[in-house]
């Protein structure tokens, strides 16, 4: 945990006796802000994520995100450089210092392709998908699920190497639901923490007695793959129009064949991540072409 953090000026902070200079804002969400900072000791860029903790539960959720980062040391999961909890004026903020990934999110790359009237070639899709699957496998192998996999939560470096980020919605892979009250608790949690257009069907109307497992991520993975192929998610337009995504995911939709095994309404019929990873590897082997990572 970061120690002796202080605000030395409007433009500098200190983690573990190392000074970082504010460069610019990168992103802003409902409860968090991300700034680009530069380490005075190494000249490297970092992303400083500040999470607003409005109450004890908010602080607990931020602590969980820190713990999830600490669980993994994997090339496809964004690492945590340092963190601290900052108390100011009776308010608490969790500060997470993360590596800065140059190209930004997968979604930003797809948006640029769409604006140019271009598309993502199959070899590049498979290259990125393989890394995403490797990251998911590491999470699933430890008995957890990401629960909010989407293009904005995948970062790409200059070599199109993907990093899974935003681990704040992660929890145990297996959730046993026993009774209508527990079902409503899980459903309400999913409504708050799992992005609607990438949310698995079983999280919209949670059954009173069921087991939800990590295959919620497999559905989301299919949506991400669809998005890479079509440059928009399968339910993005439905959400934008204000129509019911919950209803849409329960009915068959026209999706490209590679997505069909992952986007199955019944979670028990969805494959595990190891199977998906094998399929991606087989497609890469049969494709046999190099990836041009510098097009966007």
Automatic annotation (TrEMBL):
Q: Output the CDD domains linked to this UniProt entry.
A: STKc_16
**Keyword Transferase tagged:** yes
What does the record give as EC number?
2.7.11.1
One Gene Ontology cellular component term attached to this UniProt record is: Golgi apparatus
Specify one Pfam family.
Pkinase
* Highest taxon, organism lineage: Eukaryota
Q: Which reaction does it catalyse?
A: L-threonyl-[protein] + ATP = O-phospho-L-threonyl-[protein] + ADP + H(+); L-seryl-[protein] + ATP = O-phospho-L-seryl-[protein] + ADP + H(+)
UniProt domain Protein kinase: residue ranges: 20-296
- Keywords, comma-separated and alphabetical: ATP-binding, Kinase, Nucleotide-binding, Serine/threonine-protein kinase, Transferase
Report the GO molecular function annotations: ATP binding; protein serine/threonine kinase activity
**InterPro entries (alphabetical):** Kinase-like_dom_sf (IPR011009), Prot_kinase_dom (IPR000719), Ser/Thr-specific_kinases (IPR052239), Ser/Thr_kinase_AS (IPR008271)
What is the enzyme's main class? transferase
- The protein's name in its UniProt record: non-specific serine/threonine protein kinase
């Amino acid at each position: 945990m970061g120690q002796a953090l202080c605000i030395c000026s409007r433009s500098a902070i200190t983690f573990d006796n190392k000074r970082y200079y504010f460069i610019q804002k990168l992103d802003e969400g409902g409860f968090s802000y991300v700034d680009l900072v530069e380490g005075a000791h190494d000249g490297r860029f970092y992303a400083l994520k500040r999470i607003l903790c409005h109450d004890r539960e908010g602080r607990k959720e931020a602590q969980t995100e820190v713990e999830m980062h600490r669980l993994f040391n994997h090339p496809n999961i964004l690492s945590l450089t340092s963190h601290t909890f900052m108390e100011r004026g009776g308010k608490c903020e969790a500060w997470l210092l993360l590596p800065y990934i140059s190209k930004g999110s997968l979604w930003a790359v797809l948006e640029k392709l769409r604006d140019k009237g271009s598309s993502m070639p199959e070899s590049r899709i498979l290259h990125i998908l393989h890394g995403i699957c490797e990251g998911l496998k590491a999470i699933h192998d430890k008995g957890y699920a990401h629960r909010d996999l989407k293009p904005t939560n995948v970062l790409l470096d200059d070599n199109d190497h993907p990093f899974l980020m935003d681990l704040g919605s992660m929890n145990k892979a297996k959730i046993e639901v026993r009774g209508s009250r527990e079902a409503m608790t899980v459903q309400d949690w999913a409504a708050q923490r799992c992005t609607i257009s990438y949310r698995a069907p079983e999280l919209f109307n949670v059954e009173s007695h069921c087991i939800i497992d990590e295959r919620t991520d497999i559905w989301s993975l299919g949506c991400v793959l669809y998005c890479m192929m079509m440059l928009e998610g399968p339910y993005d337009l439905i959400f934008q129009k204000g129509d019911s995504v919950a209803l849409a995911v329960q009915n068959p939709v026209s999706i490209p064949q590679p997505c069909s095994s992952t986007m199955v309404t019944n979670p028990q019929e969805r494959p595990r991540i190891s199977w998906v990873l094998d399929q991606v590897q087989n497609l890469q082997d049969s494709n046999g072409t190099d990836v041009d990572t510098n097009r966007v």
